[in-house]
Amino acid sequence: MDIKTLRDAHKLLTEFKYELGTVERGYTNRTLYINISDNIIKSKPVTQLMKDKFIGGKGFGLWYLWNAVTPETKWNDPENEIVIAGGPICGITQYPGAGKSLVCTISPLTHIPIDSNVGGYFGPYLKFSGWDALEIQGKAEKDVIIYIDGNKGIVTIEEAPLEAIDGHVISEELTEMYADSEEDKKNISVISAGTASDYANIGILNFSFYDLRRQVARLKQAGRGGIGRVFRDKKIKAIVIKFKGTKGNLNNPANQSLINKAGIKLHKQIHDLDDVQCRMRKIGTANIIEIMDEYDLLPVHNYQYGSHPDTHKIESNVFIEKYITQNMPDGCWYGCSLSCAKAADNFELKTGPYKGHKVTIDGPEYENAAGLGANCGIFDPEIILEANFYCDTYGVDTISFGTICAFVMECYERGIINKEITGGLELNFGNGFAQLELLHQMSRGEGFGYLVGLGVRRLKEIFVRDYGADPNFLNDIGMEQKGLEVSEYLPKESLAQQGGYGLTNKGPQHDEAWLIFMDMVNNQIPTFEDKAEALHYFPMFRTWFGLMGLCKLPWNDTTPANNAETDEPAKIPEHVQNYVDLFNGITGMNIDKHELIRQSERVYNFQRVFNIRMGKGLRKHDAMPYRSMGPVTVEEYESRQERYDKQLRELVGYDPEGKTTEEKIKVMRTYREDQYEKLTDAVYKRRGWTPNGVPTIEHLKEIGMDLPEVIEVVKPHLQQEACC
Amino acid sequence: MKVKVLTKKEELCIACGLCEEVCSNAFFKEKNRDKACIKVKPGEKSSIDVCTQCGVCIDICPVKAISRDKRGIVRINKKECVGCFMCVGFCPENIMGQHDDYIEPFKCIACGLCAKECPTGAIYIEEVEIEKQEKVTPSAV
Question: Which intervals hold domain Aldehyde ferredoxin oxidoreductase N-terminal (chain A) (predicted)?
């Protein structure tokens, strides 16, 4: 359909004109509120309290969300919001990874706040258009597009009946529609979901950026927690922003020189060292596929095993040599010399509604290869790329989908479900075409694929209720916590990483802490106290990226040549100082690395209390499925028998000689579950929380997060814990 | 392709710094070696950093603001530049210019003004065969 026909079918519902703003030291000092139930659009001031306590990015998102919802609010209630915000550093062009948007909503999977960190040009353009955050509330009657023209100062809500819903199509359509010319396309960013987001709780948002050289709208994903499902439930087809005139000083920083120095130094470091370090410029995050396999950390067959003899078929060099276009400046925002946003061009699809189309695929990321591939026993790079493509365009989280698919495949292989239940699909490990069919069904809201889109937690309930499955076994092997699927690392042999997944705010996503190497490979954090310190510091440090509009990767996926000689190599001290300099350079403030952590602690604890307010966030919600901690089945135990027998002997004081595997599994389980409880005790203590996981009032006061509404939530829990 | 580029004979350089002054004065109306597109490093044997017009920066630029003109010289379109300075960090000769007074980088366009003033002939304009390093950005020529 031609663009004119699409545009002519638009019906303007409301128009809001605003004075173009200015950015002062990283802030525009106002946010844009849009209610699509009532077609209300207004400007709200950013208060000093917001800047002091919540800084920006997901801090602003969580604060607005807190004020929008009640403890009873469900994800699909109109008052639930989607909040999109950059942060004070978002939009600088000199330092790698500085164009991130943070998206917050109440998740359809977890029913608590989810936050997702996404690239693409939307976040910077939102700020340059005059807004520190975009807050969307309500539900439209018919499909709408929200359009923000950051040069003219106009926001519109338009009914848009004819545009496609799938991400790669609508992003192209709207980029074409709103750009004045081919050169102007880089000034457009589109947020969309996809057809599966109409049905699946694992829906994502696609944030576009126009690739000038490939001449295609590329997509980055706000992936975790089902934000796309909320977006489509609100009947939003897309949000489009246009801003022309990006320059290197639009944040109006207090000290541009500090930012320039940090940025150029890092560009040089990446230039000199990336080829011999992580090869992020060559293959992005997929560089670790074979490394994870080598260290027995690659999830295989629903996290039963950590490696597979066929991993070489999907190792990074296969993608580099056969599929990925090389030597492109693949940053998802200007100035990202780490350039991990890889793409396979001219990939001909073999299945589905776009069969025969030659498409550009964003990826594969490590998580896609591990989740869609190894975890499902699929070692075919073309299936992985095709599933990657369809996940993106249908609006499906590759991580959740990979983990769910691995779960149903194990259930199928163990006879918990059968061909009759799957509608004829033979869901054996390794059946790539069956995996793709699940996706196609999900996009139509049909068949077993529809059920898969509901997530592991719902599937466990359904398999128990309808097919008589053993709930204990499903709880052991269903890799979800708080309703969110575990991301793609095997944490079984690293207690610290079990905590890195389990003791999180939003659920088991590795963006809070990735401690496997520190813990398991390098043995740098041997005691509970060491692990607790790491599970305090790293989640707080990593939270900071989400307050600022930054990407985590340029922190530790490139390291200074002399990093190993520093006092705390795991923290990358030189890069921490860069971040302090960036913040001070932008805002003119004078924080140090300790205040940086404090800024995060406030928001981190606020989010914990928000979870408690929504009925989760206590110790019982931080328990992990046993598959993440140790061997559930005989096969798993015996695949690592030597290691496990040795541990029983040396750590537990139990002689495995002559014992059955079942007996040994039981003893091992008691030991490992006890270790996790001890770790939880130590981490809560370090974080200033009670044994039930509730932040104490003293701690909230000490960190400066003692807002009355926050205290009100924790008080009854603290009283109950004190008396009982 | 054959391109007239600024060429050097470092053994003739006496590190007088005149070339740097001429350059910054031509570009920025200011005699300031930090703002020159040529860099002389004095020492027992002086060294000179000059742009070879290799074109590595053309592909590095995320907005295609750097291109080769019809003379084969690599030039920055400041209007399009977003000031990310990746070209500065990735220049193989470490000679892409940057100064905090400006939000865009700057580079040698082989104008030859510095060569004209060089008292020893250590720098001069010469037509040489260069191997273009840009692979993915179509040439403006």
Answer: 27-247
Nearest to A107 by CA among A237, A239, A231: A231
CB within 8 Å of A443: residues ≥ 6 apart = A166, A194, A195, A196, A199, A353, A390, A394, A449
Among the partner residues A264, A327, A328, nearest to B89 by beta-carbon distance:
A264
A250 close to B (CB below 8 A): no
pTM: 0.97
Contact A197, A120 (CB under 8 A): no
Kindly report, residue by residue over A571-585, the tens digit of the pLDDT: 999 999 999 999 999
CATH label of the domain that carries residue B66: 3.30.70.20
Do A93 and B84 lie within an 8 Å CB cutoff? yes
CATH class of the domain comprising A495-558+591-723: mainly alpha
- Nearest CB partner across the interface for A260, out of B81, B86, B100: B100
How far is A119 from A194, CA to CA, in rounded Å?
A: 18
What are the strands of the beta sheet with A82-85, ordered from one edge?
A: A40-45, A30-35, A133-137, A82-85, A101-106, A113-118
Please write the tens of the pLDDT for every residue from A351-407. 999 999 999 999 889 999 999 999 999 999 999 999 999 999 999 999 999 999 999
- Fold of the CATH domain A3-242: Aldehyde Ferredoxin Oxidoreductase;  A, domain 1 (3.60.9)
| Residue intervals in chain A for CATH 1.10.569.10 | 274-485
Q: Do A248 and B60 touch (CB under 8 A)?
A: no
Q: Output the CA torsion A210→A215→A216→A222 (10° steps).
A: -30
> Measured between alpha carbons, how far is residue A110 from residues A105, A106, A644 in Å?
11, 8, 34
Beta carbons of A94 and B135 less than 8 Å apart? no
